[in-house]
Amino acid sequence: MVIEKLSSIKGVCFVVVTAMLLYFGLRRQLRRWEKATVARQKAEAESKTTEAKFRSYVEHAPIAFFVVNRLGQFVDANPPACQLTGYDNAELLRLNIADLVVEPDRERALREFAELAAGGHLEKEYTLKKRGGATALISLRAVKINDDRFLGFCQDISQLRKNEQTLQASHAQIQYIIDNTWDIIFQIDLQGNYTYANAAAGRATGYPLDELLKMNMWQLSPPDQHALLKNRMQTQIANEALEKTFELEILHRDGHRLWLEITSSRVVNIAGKLTGIQGVAREISGRKQAETQLRKLSLAVEHSPVSIIITDTAGNIEYVNPKFSEVSGYAPAEVCGKNPRLLKGDETRPEEYQRLWHDLTAGQQWRGTFHNRKKSGELYWESASISPITDEVGRITHFLAIKEDITKQKTLEEQVRQMQKMEAFGQLAGGVAHDFNNILAIVQMQASTLRMNPDLSPEIADQASEIETAAQRGANLTRQLLMFSRRQPLKPCDLNLNDILTSITKMLQRILGEDIQMQFKYAPEPLFIHADASMMGQVLMNLAVNSRDALPKGGQLSIETTAVEFDETTVNSSAQSRPGAFACLSVSDTGSGIPPEILPRIFEPFFTTKDIGKGTGLGLATVFGIVQQHQGWINVSSEAGRGTTFRIYLPRLAGPAKPAHAKPSPETICGGHETILLVEDDVPLRRVARIVLTNLGYRVLEAADGTEALRLWQANRHDIRLLVTDLVMPGGMTGKELAEELLKHNPKLKVIYASGYSRGIASKDLHLEEGVNFITKPFSSRNFAQIIRKQLDEK
């Protein structure tokens, strides 16, 4: 019983103890769970705080971060990544790495990301394609987070690479400059051993660089320079503020001495410790020679054939050379401190001065011309080149002007322009004369034909004579035009210029009148020229009449001939002058002179200052044309109120003149019965020519051009004995071409050419002879009939 009770108590105690143990165990476990929960919650809170903190770091980091999955798809990205790519976060998370990497980097990027999945890390550079198409070079670093996540961060290194390239280029350029400069660049240690030298050092000393770098500076210095060199080096080492430029004499490898100008400085390492001396040297052995050259340059400036002026930036003159004074008439003391505008003339435009100052103040050279005035008031032309002079920092300090007197050149240019103008006028005059001659030919032939009519009353015969005289006057006028245009045929022969003048002096006196005194001064020796005597008389007559008109109240006219020689140094008086022997005819008067504004125009045809009806304006133009035809030229000098002088230069012959042939006597008019083909495009002229020939008994076939003439030839080729054709015709076929075509069929056909131009101008490739196979319009019926008969009778 007791045992049962004890067992029962034991059982209860066991239960109680077990229950207590379970209670306290559960309590401890609950406390541990509670602590674990609190710790876990704290850890989760701290984790969230840390994650937020790191998220903030990533969001605000200056570098682009991103996360991609195994397929390269973007999972997360920070703002710098969006800014780098140009896409916002939502757009970027829809893209793959392959979408942002351009070829040929794309294939490599995909391959290298696939390799990253096996472990390790990636550090590469790729070309990134931004939104909108722009590209950038990026540096990418990536690591594997887990089997499906990769973390990467990248940076735009485009500018870095450009900077590196620029730096490399700069380094290369500096190295190139160092390697190619003519200045010596060197470094020595504190014992004087060379540690660096450029190629220029080797060139200057004659040593190869590898040999030079094994040497000491004492080996390159003559013994008498060692003390100076040692003192200089010790002072440089001890005193950083020492004046660093000095001169030193060294020895060349071949033994000769040369001077260097050296600029040196101390060399210190990163720690600031002095390790040596570096310097830049330049050979100055030629300095004395340069000083000599400078003295020569100074003398060259002083004796320069052009004016040299130096001014300050305000334009005030600081220096002028002697040539300036010679040209302008101003002494240096008269212009120094003054502005060059004291030379200013009237013709240089203000805009030109504005352009001058604009160019000079911009640092540019100016070139141009000035029309300036000398101290005496005389105007002259200058060609100028003005340049800014700058100091070592590029600041303009002075202006240098180099000027040349081109007045004579301007005069020659004006003469050339005048010649060109006269040539144009000549072509015009020749064309007018040609057309006018066709008209005069009709009038003259009609009048002469009318006068040959024996049934005319005396009154009508006189009228026909007056018509013929008027036509002749018109022909003389066209002859003057042709003389001016150099299209009047010459009949030159060798003659003495003095004889021509002597033969017309009496006639000149009658023309000029008693109130004009004439003086003649002929060269003592004969002046042989090859010229047309009548044209030379025309020249003198026209010049004399021109002088008479300048002497309304009388005066003096002087005519002089001289023999002159021109060489290469004396031919600048005229644009046409040339070396050689010439006969000079001078005609001078004491008249009113020619105003300078009119002088350039006096040889223009139809230009005259006379009242209407008192001059044709062809007198001097005719003189000009005749002189040109004789390969000569004219110089004119005139001064208002003091008269005018014309000087005509004609080529002079070395030998005596040849006698001229006597002119044949006029032939009688004879007709005939032959058939003549007449080709003339001018209808009235063709009609009157047909009448003349028909009245003389000839059979005349008329054609207006070459095509019509060929048709008439085909129908009458066996009857036609003579072709009379104008040289210039419409329709595309000339008279020469027509004759050549007909002569192919009948070589015995006779041909006469007609033209309003002279023989030499009408056709240069035909052998034409005036009065034989050529006749110049206008012509009389008599002359026309004579040449027709002469040609038909020619065997």
Overview in brief:
The protein has 795 residues and is α+β, with helices and mostly antiparallel strands.
Fold topology:
Blueprint (H helix, E strand, L loop, with lengths): L1 H59 L3 E6 L4 E4 L1 H7 L3 H4 L4 H4 L4 H12 L4 E9 L5 E12 L2 E8 L1 H23 L3 E6 L4 E4 L1 H7 L3 H4 L4 H4 L5 H13 L6 E7 L5 E12 L5 E10 L3 H16 L4 E6 L4 E4 L1 H7 L3 H4 L14 H12 L4 E8 L5 E12 L5 E10 L1 H45 L6 H27 L8 E4 H16 L3 E6 L6 E4 L1 H17 L5 E12 L13 E10 L29 H11 L3 E7 L3 E9 L23 E5 L3 H13 L3 E5 L2 H11 L3 E7 L8 H11 L4 E6 L3 H4 L11 E3 L4 H13 L2
Parallel strand pairs: 17-19, 23-24, 23-25, 25-26, 26-27
Antiparallel strand pairs: 1-2, 1-5, 3-4, 4-5, 6-7, 6-10, 8-9, 9-10, 11-12, 11-15, 13-14, 14-15, 16-18, 19-20, 20-22, 21-22
Molecular structure report:
- The chain has 795 residues and is of the alpha+beta class.
- The chain has seven domains: 53 residues; 102 residues, Beta-Lactamase (2-Layer Sandwich); 105 residues, PAS domain (Beta-Lactamase); 116 residues, Beta-Lactamase (2-Layer Sandwich); 72 residues, Orthogonal Bundle (Helix Hairpins), CATH 1.10.287; 162 residues, 2-Layer Sandwich (Heat Shock Protein 90); 119 residues, Rossmann fold.
- Helix content is 43%, strand content 25%.
- It is built from 24 helices and 27 strands.
- Strands 2-1-5-4-3 form a five-stranded antiparallel beta sheet. Strands 7-6-10-9-8 form a five-stranded antiparallel beta sheet. A five-stranded antiparallel beta sheet has the order 12-11-15-14-13, sandwiched between helices.
- Strand 14 and strand 15 form a beta hairpin.
